[in-house]
């Protein structure tokens, strides 16, 4: 069955040998939303190439509070489980499906061989590391230097809808805070007339 890798930037640069190799080694996968793909601290034995859906990567402190590191989107390979697999070390984060997802999983030896076969694929991996380092630097900068009410408003406005279906806990996880602080911040924004709080939703005014 032909691979569906059109969403990946390296797809058009793969030669016939690399494509043939991928078709033999890549295994299709489909997972419903709200499922854990791997846990922080596990050693991953497969790499995910995501062709459809979104995956949340987050770190957690003793099973209580969590902080979102980034969202894995269509046409991306997960760097957290790639790093764990190639170095045989514990994954630094957990991965949870935000939506139903589809994609391919590839084992460690096949990933190493594909990197040797295809300079285009190897360059793609390096570019992902650069992008994710930028994401993490931006996250650290936001947590350290931006006021929480500004960060909350920026996150709400990025959702591109006026009424965002979410919980205070979900916002807290995304922004590296906790539910009580987020609830207090949202109530302050509501008093200023910037948002209106609904059950299970926040409306941007």
List descriptors.
205 residues, alpha+beta, Jelly Rolls, Arc Repressor Mutant, subunit A, 7 helices, 11 strands
Q: What does this entry look like structurally?
A:
By secondary structure, this protein is α+β, with helices and mostly antiparallel strands. The chain folds into 2 domains: 11-144, Jelly Rolls; 147-204, Arc Repressor Mutant, subunit A (Orthogonal Bundle). The chain has 7 helices and 11 strands. The chain has helices at residues 16-25, 79-87, 108-117, 119-145, 148-158, 168-175, 179-191, and strands spanning 27-31, 36-38, 46-52, 55-61, 65-72, 76-77, 94-97, 101-107, 163-165, 195-198, 201-204. It has a 4-stranded antiparallel sheet with strand order 1-8-3-6. Strands 2-7-4-5 form a 4-stranded antiparallel sheet. Strand 4 (55-61) and strand 5 form a beta hairpin. Helix 3 packs across helix 4 (119-145) and helix 6 packs across helix 7 (179-191). It starts with 15 loop residues before the first helix and ends with a strand. The model has no long low-confidence stretch (mean pLDDT 81).
Outline the secondary-structure elements.
Blueprint: H1 16-25, E1 27-31, E2 36-38, E3 46-52, E4 55-61, E5 65-72, E6 76-77, H2 79-87, E7 94-97, E8 101-107, H3 108-117, H4 119-145, H5 148-158, E9 163-165, H6 168-175, H7 179-191, E10 195-198, E11 201-204
Helix pairs in contact: 3-4, 6-7
